[in-house]
């Protein structure tokens, strides 16, 4: 049986045209992109450029909303009232959805960014609010989030499809949450370790925690961090590794 896996990357996270050009260099090696929509970064120009580039490479297009916090690049948890959160999420997702419509593209999924992602992975109430906003935009849009997290439960509760995401470069705890970046073992120390973890996700094999415990996780999409200075090189090597093992790289479109 031929296996396949989606590779997604967070893009459009700058208002500088040179960054959009760099994003485009990653696109031949991935199958989905998550476009920043003004919460942590991005504006109409970056959204338009990202959608055009994504269409040229036949990528599944996603919105990448965050807490409204450009000062901290969306990496700080913010306490918002439910109505305020719904308002900012709807504004951000609508920016991508309306831009997709203008370009003849389809908004395929929504993936929260940064602190919003991490908070929603643990908080079912927050995750449910996000899932409900996604469903209000369209019942055909999928929610992407941490595999086997509260976001998965929320998506099922609301009745939208969920994309289980795995991180190639991050270590996991025994409860399937990510080791926080504040801890020394948060990241793999070598690219080879990251590539091996990505391959295991794609093959449906267990991965190891830093303590050696085996974790079995269903992963539909592997995250490639676009803000890594070596992102283009890593994307090429990941693409080559999966291809060498007869694994197709494609989105669920």
UniProtKB/TrEMBL annotation:
InterPro entries: Glyco_hydro/deAcase_b/a-brl, LamB/YcsF/PxpA-like
Pfam family, one: LamB_YcsF
Example GO biological process: carbohydrate metabolic process
SUPFAM superfamilies: Glycoside hydrolase/deacetylase (SSF88713)
Name of the protein described by the UniProt record: Lactam utilization protein LamB
